[in-house]
């Protein structure tokens, strides 16, 4: 029988791509419940699903921040059984700490962290009874290392990493696997919308130096990072499809090999200084030099230039 896969946040990005790829599995191994908070946005998903709609893919309403919505969604699933849960829904938050409200930071935790916890609590009793299941969590490389001006978002992903690594130990007793998927930059609406909003945002109570570092160093560097090493949501979804098909899925799976050197900095120096100083240099020293038009020493190209052209 096909495995029932419930995915949160399928109106766009990684969630949408994953739902469509699983629904189009040529061996029809999956029955996909593609959920979203606002069913008014289901048009793109339905168009991409094509003939799979109503066959191997159904669309359902689910707000990960609401107990009632989670209960309602699960009650509509045939047999109420979820074999694979993909916690994908998430929101970002970028900017100088002093200029962001606590309410905005709490919303990040409510969605990214407690949203996943809420769903897992709902499906876990069934998985335990059946002694099988797979919980996939779309974390981030920011769940492994902090990134400047992304403090609350990174903290929410660190929280996921600690929570699910802890749970994974107990769940092995029940033959239930957990996988934390850790993409680097992914070119979706997510970062695009976010960077657009913050480039014009006011950030009250923030001193001019901090604003200068944010606007003139972080924002251009971030745009360049997405432009140069950003992955497509299709590529990330492909990695998740592969992980879901494994009999013994791993606890962690990074999706972008070009990030491996940065992750290694933390492993090489457990004190954390190497990572903090390297990323500080990358942002504040190299960006300044490169913005002056310094060329690549190897070939003279402007490949490493960080300022937008
Ligand atoms: P996206 O904005 O296209 O997708 C996020 C989805 O979550 C949206 O469809 C949004 O409507 C949904 N969502 C937000 N709040 C919700 C709620 N309360 N209930 C249900 N759905 C809700 O962006 P994406 O890049 O596809 O993001 C998917 C996941 O990937 C997120 O968890 C994000 O943190 C993670 N991620 C993204 C990147 C990136 O660079 N885009 C990198 C690493 C990890």
Q: Overview of this structure, please?
A:
The protein has 309 residues and is α/β, with parallel strands linked by helices. The chain has 2 domains: 3-258, NAD(P)-binding Rossmann-like Domain (Rossmann fold), CATH 3.40.50; 269-309, no CATH class. It contains 10 helices and 7 strands. It has a 7-stranded parallel sheet with strand order 3-2-1-4-5-6-7, sandwiched between helices. Strand 4 (84-87), helix 4 (102-130) and strand 5 form a beta-alpha-beta unit. Helix 7 (208-229) crosses helix 10 (273-291). The protein starts with a strand and ends in an 18-residue tail after the last helix. It binds nicotinamide-adenine-dinucleotide.
- How would you write the strand order of the largest sheet? 3-2-1-4-5-6-7
Ends apart, CA distance between termini: 53 Å
**Mean pLDDT across all amino acids:** 91
Radius of gyration: 20 Å
Under CATH, the homologous superfamily of the largest domain reads NAD(P)-binding Rossmann-like Domain
Small molecules in complex? nicotinamide-adenine-dinucleotide
Order of helices and strands: EHEHEHEHEHEHHHEHH
CATH structural fold name of the largest domain: Rossmann fold
